[in-house]
Amino acid sequence: MTADPKGVLTGEHYLDGDHAAAEGALAAGCRYFAGYPITPSTEVAERIAARFPLVGGLFVQMEDELASMAAILGGAWAGAKSMTVTSGPGFSLMMENIGLGIMMEVPTVIVNVQRGGPSTGLPTLPGQADIMQARWGSHGDYEIIAVSPSSPQEAFDHTIMAFNFSEKYRLPVFVMMDECVGHMTEKVVIPKADEIEIVPRKWYEGDVGDYLPYKADDDMIPWMVKVGDGHRFHTTGLTHDERGYPVMNAECQETCVGRLVEKIRSRVDDIVVLEEEEVEGADVVVVSYGITARVAIPAVERARADGINVGSLRLVTVWPFPENRIRQLAKKVKSFIIPEINYGQLYYELERCAGGEAKTILVPHAGGWVHDDKDIYDAIKEGAK
Amino acid sequence: MKKPAAAAPEMPHPMEELLRMDRIPHIWCPTCGLGTVVTAFAAALETLELPLDDVAVVSGIGCTGRVAGYIKVDSFHTTHGRAIPFATGLHLTNPKLKTVVISGDGDLISIGGNHFIHAARRNVDITVICVNNFTYAMTGGQVAPTTPLGANASTMPYGNYERPFNIPYLAESSGAVYVARWSALHVRRLTTAIAEALEKPGFSVVEVISPCSTLYSRRNRLGTGLDLMKFYHDNCVIKHGAPTRELDIGFQEEITVGKFVDLERPTYVDAMNKWYAGVFGDDYEPYEGAVK
């Protein structure tokens, strides 16, 4: 299906990433937003607050991020596409209810405009240090999906992509932006509504009385209903059976959590989106995401001018990690270079998947600004040796 | 020799329509007040003849948190303290639903206290039934923000010296439009209060003083559940309209019950619709839900 024209601001715009993400949500059909102000993400909420009244949406500024996250789960169960937006400290506060969203299998989207941390850190300056928190921040075992836009255009496109992933796989999906992308202003082209592909929710169409909220077919995705449809169902954050009833034993834990993990793990190659450039035959591959992917471009071009055979692999989806592709490439390349605005997070995934077959070189950055491209260039030269 | 009585004909459970019979028996202790609260809630729904398909129940965590699991409407057992914001999301997305939060004093007033006051301030059109047993029962009898001064708790082993919250006062001063308190003994009045709260547009609160004989009573040597009910019988004083600031509950002292607040104030959605109609004029379509 395609987008509801009511929310789509078709045309060419000059927008920053935060505003573009808000437009992406509107185009995706998001009509319930609950959030709490936090730099550098607030502009997303502000734009939604201004736009929602005339498109039939409801914006509410909640009392904190715990409430925001809980509210968007409620909104999704009532049948809406829902979203919240935050940055590091708020992301930390959302973790418990992100786990509830995983457990209740709620399609919803969380935009995290990353800033420097830990703690209050650098509210107005960029970071990419919440990448592992996105993966492991809530307690227990689960798989997630996260995208990482590199431009305002992608903030728009990837927010729609995030909604589509959330509906297709029934889980909260993260848009892991950073302050630079959030606040940089560029041209954003918003297509016509009928050119925007929207993945609809997997609605239950069977009889009232037969509905089992956690019975899935071969695709491992259960059918969803909305409150008020008459199914009078139950759902819980406790380990549960197909009826959504709590069952406290190891067998049910294996069935319940096993499916939450497998519904993503068995489809990693369908989910992963990569952008590769001159990777085939390269000696060195630069792996990057978000703003860092753009900062790496001059370093790669300069190394190529020096005659180094260097390719670039950009992670559009940062989670699930493209394990298979990295394992394949590790057999062929000398080294991987990974610049990140952190002291090494996806680096450890890269190192694990390279499995000792190729060198992995981290170009760390504590946050507060982007890399000096010379540091990435130096790492490429080191990797080519 | 007396002949054995003929087996009684199979009778349906009188609350079968509203209970998930496949989950009964419940996990609550004998003489717990929660069964009474569920019964009163069911009776209130019956009185109002509300279509059950339009009712949603949201609970948090704890003994009362389990209520959502037994009531056969769309029901959500959420995280500790977050029943109100979850219910806020549900209600604001579909205001036509009758959204009810049933949870405990620790869940709603301690870990969820911030949500309680803000939902009241916004006058979100939900009903909160707060079951107050003066303790954290599910985890073994720890001190709660409602434990009376001097009462014993496992984390106040020498007696509680923290001043407890007065829930009706908190609710009224935060903006609730309907506030009542009854005990698990007052089944008929409790049922009426729940029915009134459900009908009231806006944030309505019914506090239910409820016996916990397993933990609160045992630690404080207050006897059995029946003894607690007798205590309510002898010590609950009905004072409708009593100023809520005077409703503190002391250890084994008189408990004031009744209906204290019942007033009119625009709900969140009504206030928003009125405001936006003024701002946008005919361009604004009154919000009736984000789901068509």
Q: How would you sum up this structure, described in words?
A:
The complex is a heterodimer of chains A (385) and B (292). Chain A is of the alpha/beta class. Chain A contains 13 helices and 16 strands. In chain A, strands 2, 3, 4, 5, 6, 7, 8 and 14 form an eight-stranded mixed sheet that branches. In chain A, strands 11-13-12-15-16 form a five-stranded mixed sheet, with helices on both faces. In chain A, strands 1-9 form a two-stranded antiparallel ribbon. In chain A, α3 (65-77) runs parallel beside α4. Chain B is built from ten helices and ten strands. Chain B has helices at residues 34-48, 67-70, 83-93, 105-111, 113-122, 167-174, 187-199, 213-219, 225-235, 268-280, and strands spanning 55-59, 74-77, 98-104, 127-132, 135-136, 142-143, 178-183, 204-209, 236-238, 255-262. An eight-stranded mixed sheet of chain B has the order 2-1-3-4-8-7-10-9, sandwiched between helices. Chain B has a two-stranded antiparallel ribbon with strand order 5-6. In chain B, β5 and β6 form a beta hairpin. The longest helix of chain B is centred in the N-terminal third of the chain and has 15 residues, at 34-48. The N and C termini of chain B lie far apart (69 Å). The chains are: A alpha/beta (385), B alpha/beta (292). At the A-B interface, β2, α3, α4 and β10 of A face β2, α3, α5 and α10 of B. β10 (234-236) of chain A pairs parallel with β2 (74-77) of chain B.
